[in-house]
Write a structure and sequence with these properties.
alpha/beta; Arginase, Chain A; 15% strand; binds manganese (II) ion
Length: 359
Amino acid sequence: MPKASLATLAQLRRRDKAAFDFAEPTIAQFFDRALDEGYSLDTNGFLANPGFFQAPHRRSPHAETDIAMVGCPLDLGAIGLAGARHGPQAIREGSRNFGPVNDLTGAIPFDQCSIVDYGDVTWTRTDLVTRVSNDIASVFRELGSAGITTLSCGGEHTTTYGALKGLSEAHDDTFGLVHIDAHCDTMATWGGDTINDGSVFRQAVLEGFIDPTRSVQIGIRGRASFLWEFSHDVGMTVITSDEVYEKGTRYVIDKAHEIVGQDKAYCSFDVDGLDSSIMMGTTGPEPFGLSARQARAILYGLRGLNLIGADLVELNPNRDPTGASTHLAAAMFFELLCLLADTRVKQTQSTRPTQWHER
Ligand SMILES: [Mn+2]
């Protein structure tokens, strides 16, 4: 084959454009605005916005905030294994690989919603109960009372208890639950403990944060399954990992909508719901779990639920020195952000772009 002719090259070169000179108007307009305000696709250029997905940092989110992302760097409630406290900072680092556009929906969450990185919860004491029931809960009570949707990351699963406590008080409501996990986390507490990362949802039911009959637990499996009698006793819907494979994600999504309904709901994603071959960087890895594609399909399918918050927990980044677990967790965190942004637009019937410059 002869070398390309000058005429062919001239034709091709007419298609060559400057970076960020996109024909697609929504993409072009986003970059016109965001690059001016400090957003950058250069992974070395993140010093201006070191937050999750480069969200601007606002410690006091105001009434004009739609979604606040919060880090809960806590592992005191994990039974047996420390390290999840490093999750939030690892996900901020990993988030540099994701956004601004969701490739499934074409949506740009930072154009849909005013999104901030609140930073990490400040600890007032060293003990687990204070950190969960006071420090985390008070942040979520404040955010929920301001009408802000929350997206948090742990930390182990007791962080969810704190978030649910604060949000439940702020909304004065008992929520439906979509819970992706290898474990139901409905075991009894030990020896008078209030909480640990295997008892979160038993306590959340017993304290009225979530309604068991509007709760679905997805991806359940493994050596601890005998511990989850409470889930069945109180009428939570348990969908095992095997059922996800056998019946498909469409079945799971339909079931979630049927069970949770249209009242307010919360979504909690423990990364150990994913198979341990792709998620070793977690406190309690389990084989025979969900694929990344199944998990993303399920999150995609939760559009239409009335979610007021979500979280991703139990990333234990140092346990997977390859970084693959952190990378996948950050990808799932972006899917959750996009889910909440779509949900928020539907709830408020309006859009409100993120402003990187403080106004
Ligand atoms: Mn788990």
